Amino acid sequence: MKHLVIAEKPSVARDIARVLHCGQKSAGCMEGKDYIVTWALGHLVTLADPEQYGEQYKTWSMDTLPMLPKNWKLVVIRQTAKQYHAVRDLLFRKDVSDVIIATDAGREGELVARWILEKAGSHKPVRRLWISSVTDKAIREGFAHLRPGKDYENLYHAAVARAQADWVVGINATRALTCKYNAQLSCGRVQTPTLAMIAAREEEIRSFVPTPYYGLKAAAGGISFIWTDSASKSSRTFDKARIDAIYRNARKELKVTDIAKKTKKSQAPALYDLTALQKEANQRYGYSAKETLNIMQRLYETHKILTYPRTDSRYLTTDIVGTLKERLEACAAGPWRKTAALLARQEIRPSGSFVNNAKVSDHHAIIPTEEYVRLETLSSDERKIYDMVVRRFLAVLSPACETEEISVAGTIGQERFTAKGSIIRKAGWRQVYDSDWQDMDEDEDDFSGQEGRDSFGLSGSTQTLDLDVSSLRPGSILPVTALAITKGSTKPPAYFTEGTLVAAMENPVKYLKNKNKTIVRTLGETGGLGTVATRADIIEKLFNSFLMEKKGNEIHITSKGKQLLSLVPPDLKSPELTAQWELRLQAISRGKDSDRKFMGEIQDYTRRLIQQIKDADGTFRHDNLTRHKCPQCGKLMLEVNGKHGRLLVCQDRECGYRETLSRRTNARCPVCHKKMELVGKGDAQRFVCSCGHKEKLSAFQERKKKEGKGGNKRDVAAYMRKQAKEAEKPINNAFAEAFKNLDLSKGISGSKKEKQRTKKFL
């Protein structure tokens, strides 16, 4: 008898098949003496669309809401039906004794496999492979320690409850809003609160009034001193009259009152989880959250040199400690060779700063695997991300950085002035970063209001300098050679970028209006809005549904987004709802709560939600109508800002016509060196820059040829193919398929095409 292994993706299936010696390839599987390895393609099975629960749901109408299925139906996803049937046939082979679930180790991975088994009607025994990397060693060890499938039954129930709850709330609320306002308006428990955070940030920026503040700098004895308020210890004041008085009455000498030296040790920053990596990759390289996740997925699945990327932990478990030397040896290449080899020869002493079993749930922090890296096989993007992970890994295993801090305090008259300096005695982990170290973990959103950054970059009460104090003693008198008033002003918080938005979704507490202790604790326990695996997709949905747009690297809410927030019931705009859900789902996964009870409460909530939408007063208007008529249906088109450029989109969803107006490119302006847009069609295509520079595409190509910088035909053709591919990407949100067949001018109605699969909604 043989064991059937179900992996989540073909690439992982191939790795498992190789380790299990399954060399015989068949349709949808690989077979060996003892094992058959097959795969899903993401989800093969999903929840049925509304119209499959009754003819009345084929028409979008308020009268049919809310839709609350009593007996949930599963359907095979049409695009992957061939692979589903292949897996089903394998499940019922007489020589298959049991099933080994080898999908991703997490809630969604469990759902992928279990829904296949349920839809197929398989009742064969189930075991579970639970691993965090797909190296040969990890796979062998995982198969040596397979766990009973029943151990993960509760995890499956939690996954089903999440999917059904999102279906009930998302689809009902979306249909209600669409019918009520005759426009494509969708909402959900994750994307709508995320949009609300963006709106709240913009409102905070608009309402912010800068406040000037003042300080004093003094030069004495070759040292630059900063005035410090004796009471508040602040280096600035909002009282200009006070600073002016101190300046006028200042003496020409400074008396040293105190000299202090202190040795300080600092540990390396924590290992990466996915959110921290996405945030820093966006700050360093401008990668979107989705791009970073995709790169990580390739490093995990294809190259097998990094561990599972969709993790929310920045710690390792004790069982990983014994593998650290192997991992050091595996990444000892290129710029990390010397440091990695040195650390591998030393004794590794795990500390609580990076090893903590209690702070690891399903998966530990992202670190290199035991697979030896081949740098020549990595793309530029892959190498950048791998470099970030490896350097952080090496830093954590390196000694602490030791610095000697020197502070000097003195008085000019009755006023206190201070100077502070530091000398690195032992670089420790900082050597890993050379001179490239930046503290990306510091939350840039903390600089706001009265505690914002000044125009001189002074956010603290002292400066940082290398001080020579060998000749100074308490009581020393230093002549004041210069004294100047400094001025700054408070700054508003920065607009969100993709990096900071992902971080805000992980920790949305600061964006709550109601700072209830229970809510705050719940959000902390559940990990915020969405999961590490879904946040990138949520951001993409918000862009693709034109609820938000990019201006440079900044994220701004659109008019459509603002109107949606004004029409959505308050519950769906708050992070509290998703926090409460996630807490319940975690309890279900641990067997401490009932999925049936949870779904009963969700249905009651949905009834109240639909009634709120029905009773609400409000209107929606397209304020982006153009004079351009759709060449297919003749209706006026909407101008929208997509993530990659500007488009014209037909307002009639049944028509679905769209046309690209311009695309953002990486081509640099020869005048100001900013990135240019590509506008026009065919031979009329031209680059346009915000500085006023215009250049035909043909002229651009010729210029690049002359400069010898990638202007060859192959590169240009590749670039144009990439642009065309981006233009063809879906521009609608998760309910696009359901909406595109609606003729809103004729009333809300469905069609056969509406039966196409609606994506899971968050």
Describe this structure in words.
Residues 442-465 and 726-762 have low confidence and may be disordered. Helix content is 35%, strand content 20%. A seven-stranded mixed beta sheet has the order 2-3-4-1-7-8-9. Strands 18-19-20-21-22-23-24 form a seven-stranded antiparallel beta sheet. The protein has a six-stranded antiparallel beta barrel with strand order 10-11-14-13-12-15. Helix 5 (153-181) runs parallel beside helix 19. The chain is α+β, with helices and mostly antiparallel strands and 762 residues long. It has five domains: 2-145, 3-Layer(aba) Sandwich (Rossmann fold); 165-206 and 494-615, Orthogonal Bundle (Topoisomerase I, domain 2), CATH 1.10.460; 212-267 and 402-489, Topoisomerase I, domain 3 (Distorted Sandwich), CATH 2.70.20.10; 274-397, Topoisomerase I, domain 4; 625-755, no CATH class. A hairpin with a 3-residue loop joins strand 3 (29-31) and strand 4 (35-39).
